[in-house]
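I need you to check the entry underneath: sequence plus C-alpha cells. Let me know what the C-alpha cell row says about the fold.

>
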Amino acid sequence: LRGPPVHQGAQDIWYPAKAMELCAEFLVVASPDELNLFCSRRKRVALERTERAQALVREHLVETLPLEEIARRVGCSPHHLSRTFSSVTGCTIPQYLRQLRMERAAEFLNSGRFNVTETAMEVGYASVSHFIQAFQETHGCPPGAYGQAGDRK
C-alpha cells in the first residue's frame, strides 16, 4: 500500500478501490452456489446438452433425427448445438453418427448373423454402396472382407 503501482494522479481512485477490494475479500463470504462462476456453469450445461444429444443419436441410429429436432429436445438452437457438440466431442454430429453406425456394423458383421446388405439396413443406410464406401473408409477394408483373418479392428 505504501508504493501503489499507479501514477500520483490515479492514487485518489486506487486507494478507495483497494480498500473495497480488501473489505470484499475478508468480510464477504460467498456460498458455494455463488462461487459457481458463469464459465463453469456454461461448461456444465454444454456437457449436459452434448450428452443428451449423444443419447438421442444412439437411440435413433437407424432413423436419424434432424439436427433441428435434436436441438429442440436438448433445449438450444441447432447452430449452438453444432458448435457445442463439436467443441465438447471433437467431432460433428454427423461424424459421431457415422462412427456409431460403423461400430455397430462391425459388430453385426463379426456376429455372422447379417450379410452386408442386411447390415447396411440395420445401421440406417438406405444405400448399400454408400455403406460400403463409409465402411471401407472407416475400417480399411470392404465389409464383405471384414472379419477375415487379420482384418478385425
